[in-house]
Design brief:
elongated; mainly alpha
């Protein structure tokens, strides 16, 4: 079962799912409270994900290359 997973597609899939979640949540926050809070939430999450991808780049990259 595990051998049928294509490991090269996992980071792209995670990025798409994270982007959709950020978009939906920032839209909800902007509609409920304030558009500026929605934009701030989206930018904060994008910066956090960028920092975490830089922080864990060695863990995610292929060590056999």
């Amino acid at each position: 079962m595990i051998s049928s997973i294509n490991l090269s597609q996992i980071p792209i899939q995670d990025l798409v799912v994270s982007g959709i979640i950020i978009f939906i949540m920032s839209t909800i926050i902007a509609n409920l409270y304030n558009p500026l809070l929605g934009i701030t939430y989206a930018l904060g999450n994008i910066l956090t994900l960028t920092f975490l991808s830089w922080l864990y780049h060695d863990t995610w990259s292929d060590q056999s290359k």
